[in-house]
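Aim 2 progress update. The chain analyzed this quarter is reproduced below.
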Amino acid sequence: MADLPDDPAFRRRLQEHRESWQFSRRPPRIETPGPGQESVWDYPRPPEVREAGASLKVVFAGEVIAATDRGLKVVETAGAPVYHFPADDVREGVLHPSSAATFCEWKGEARYFDVVHRGKTATRAAYTYPDPLDDLGQGYGRISGMIVFYADPMDEVWVGDERATPQPGGYYAGWVTSKITGPIKGAPGSEGW
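Predicted structure tokens:
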């Protein structure tokens, strides 16, 4: 787990980003969860690491490239759960490091992979937090080195026996199932949620 750098400018920028979220900005109509469902509006911010609670599977180029019963999920206010696979539960050779990286104010730097299998390539379709920040005590160290797949470029993604769909908008890697209610951020008009 990464400690925060001893750089006052970095720490100031990080704190500004963490505080910029508008806690009071919520959509006018939040769906009420039914039995066995969770509202994404009951998820915490900063995000929290939880057990996935179901088997996870990714199909790409017609074959299962990742499957686990040891997955984790990261839940965050307004977003669909983001599922993390242990790296040894991902088919060897399908992840090709990309030069792309992003930075999350809570978890730190994400490094991306292209997914390549049987002549098919999905660019920047997976990522990992190789050395997540864990200064908030939220357990982000648990996701170190685990692999996240975006649902949209994959043929199929599964949570238990339910085929999941991508979180709206293409930026977030959440998987949407019938177990969650929204509205879910990512679609136009959801900026700032």
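DSSP finds one helix and 15 strands in the chain. The CA atoms of residues 103 and 109 lie 4 Å apart. These observations will guide the mutagenesis experiments scheduled for the next reporting period.
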